[in-house]
Protein 1
Amino acid sequence: MEVQIEANWKNILKDEFEKPYFKALTEFVKSEYKHYTCYPKGSDIFNAFEFCPFEKTKVVILGQDPYHGPGQAHGLSFSVPKGIPMPPSLINIYKELKDDVDIEIPGHGNLEAWAQQGVLLLNATLTVRGNAAGSHQNKGWEIFTDEVIQKLSEEQKGVVFLLWGGFAKKKSKLIDASKHHILTSGHPSPLSANRGYWFGNQHFSKTNLLLDAQNKKPIVW
């Protein structure tokens, strides 16, 4: 299958597309989309890469699964298209953003503007069956997205990785902490946030301080 992905990412990851696991993953995903309602729509699966080319990536925000409700997932972790109600985790992200950098909470949950500034909004698993959270886990996506993280670690410098929650924190082993920045906290989901593991992490202001120290343009959150 010809993978439709941004040109520089395609070049960086070209070896992955030829590996047996990725070919098996492709067949699995094609079958799932044929027989079930799956998200995001096929043309949006690689949106994180389309909006944030490899050489422009300054920040990585790692999610686990796409949203599995109608109209929610569009290929960017934690983001939903305009007009779709904001999920609880995204609401808590916005609350922390307001407390941290005093930005008014927008009336939509579309994070494309972040991605266009160099924030890779990457889910570990890029597809999901409708109303079945985790249904496409352990089919090969994690191998692929782990390679994405490792390529950034190996070939870039000074990327800020925001790892929220236990699942994301495990990815720190893929990152060279001697040349990148890793910020961790609890997950913004209500279960974690309400226990005090999310609010007050100040990741948005800390990220911009780290970027500014490298003479990189801060993110307009």
Protein 2
Amino acid sequence: MRRLKFLLRPGWLALAVVVVAFAFMCFYVLAPWQLGKNTSTSHRNDLIEQSVNADPVPISQVLDADGFAPDDEWRRVVAEGSYIPDKDVLVRLRVIRDQPAYEVVTPFQLQDGPVVLVNRGYVLPVQGTAPPAIEPAPTGPITLDARLRVSEGSSRQPIDEAGHLQVYNIAPGQIGEAVGLSPVDGYLQLDDGQPGGLGLIDLPQTDAGPYLSYGLQWLAFGIMAPLGLAYFVRAEWRERRKAKGQDIVGDTPPTPTEPDTVDRASEPAEPESTAVEPEFTLPTRKERRAAKKEKERSAERTANDVRLADRYGKNR
């Protein structure tokens, strides 16, 4: 309960709110965002690897009334039909081999089928950001080898600039409305050497990227933030308890001693003894040996004196 009251102080309460909000963002926003990108990237790489070794199929086998299934993306198909002239659309703000570029999208009328958009490739801008002259698509019946791509979704509205209709994403619904057609959902991306093809758009690299490690890092941060807060709260609480204990000890008054029952002032003073009591110390081992030898020599001298007295006394 004391720790709870300690956390309710304004400074610590604000810090606790920040830590809880950060942990929430880590667990429910940042980590899922990175882990989701890792999942989608891994799924895309699997589809690309499968399409590399697969033979192309007629587009009628994968096309339905709703367009293409997402799991068929990157699949190689063969489409028969003809380009629809004067309906080219430029996709702006693209980057090809680290250079700004435009991608060219042209509607394609399938033989005995609906209209589908075809990404013919890219062109590089000239004189700054101005698009170059676009080579028109061939007319008449043709056969295309291409890969299926899903719609990118629409974001910003199309613009008419530099004599071309320009869009920011390949969204069949938005482009079809702008050119007066009704293409199916999804589009085709041409392989190399196809009729009407421009600069070849390479396949993405099948690299999972750093998204998994980033996601795990955000999870770790979400765990460490509350633990760090708990550590600092505990340390601060202990320091405050220690300081409070020292204050209590310092403010405690001295315990009064009990008065003597006898008034010592009325008692006569005892005279101080001036005699010095002799100190008694035991002799050391060396001293005991010396005394023993001295005693033996003394006894020997006495015995000699007795013998001499007896001898000379008889002669007299």
